Amino acid sequence: MTSNSIWRYFDVWLATAVVMLTFFGVLMIRSAITGAPAFEGFAIRQSIFAAAGVVVMLVMASIDYRYFTSAHWFVYFGFIGLLGLVLVLGVANNSAQRWIPLGPIQLQPSEIGRTFLAVSFGQFLAIRQNQINDFRNTIVTIFYFAVPIGLIFIQPDLGMSILYVVMWFVIIVMAGLPLAHFIILSITGLIGLAIVVPFLEPYQLNRVTTFIDPASDPEQAFNVDQAVISVGSGGWFGKGYMQGTQSQLGFLRVQHTDFIFSMISEEMGFFFGAFIVLGLLLFILFRILRIAALSPDPAGRYICIGIAGSLFFQTFVNVGMNLRLVPVTGLTLPFVSYGGSSLVTLYLAIGVVQSVLMRHRKQEYG
After folding, report:
1. Residue range 28-48: average pLDDT?
2. Rounded distance, CA 29 to CA 27, Å?
3. Angle formed by the axes of helices 340-358 and 12-32, nearest 10°
4. pLDDT digits (tens, 9 = 90+) for 190-242
5. What is d(CA 46, CA 54) in angstroms, rounded to the nearest whole number?
6. 92 bridge partner residues
């Protein structure tokens, strides 16, 4: 086998779906920022980041993911180090210190960490696979995730913290977590939730209370109300590109990031907007899970499952908060919402998944 032969396993369908979804997102970002001078150029910047993301995906696909799994402790502690740098060098934005300035761009380690932690934990769990029925092993995996989650929580970033919990849960369940362990951890998790709630930032608590009782903070509930109106008013076919009333007249806020799904639903409707976005995202998840099933390497399988789990959760929460089904958390819509570092790191994750697929044949494994 030559090194070039592995490219015949490159999942063109997955890559095409990701690029199509990104292109659709750029078009909708362009509509979302129309008439907002402060956001001028965001669509072009997103296009540049998309191009960079494609390059990152191809580069990561060309690198054997087993190089990273064999150095999983370096990957893990490197990620912890980046989160530590956020506390020292990070810049604050909207009461949250999550970004490290790198010249003209800002790096959000918690975004990159979704891939880093999936890689390191996948190998960590694969090595300890014969201990999956030992409760002490389950506790060890909790501490493994507790360190980065704690550093992310104090930034503060509640949405990303929960996403990491979901990633841990999805991977370890697929690895064969015993039911008894699940029951014990569920009870412990509820107790832990009660302990954590008093330490939430006031704005985080306000999001929860507003979700339960919108009348408690009409101003906070306003944008969610506008999001629901946007989705409903779009109907089956939408009002037309750049013709949305809630988004174009300024009733819907942050429509290029957190609430872009509502804007898409209003302007493009269900068939040409929501259905296309959710259909492409589901197709991407299907292709990733297919790769997980094909991989003979437990670490590769867990990496794909972790990445798929995080994408599903992020999509569910973002769409849910646009429909007032879950509290507002700040999680954006994958590949669609504006965000340079977020988009590039998503392509990074797809590149790792492609690397797993391209080396899934047993004769090429070793």
Report:
1. 87
2. 6
3. 170
4. 887 777 767 666 666 766 676 666 666 666 677 788 888 888 888 889 999 98
5. 12
6. 97
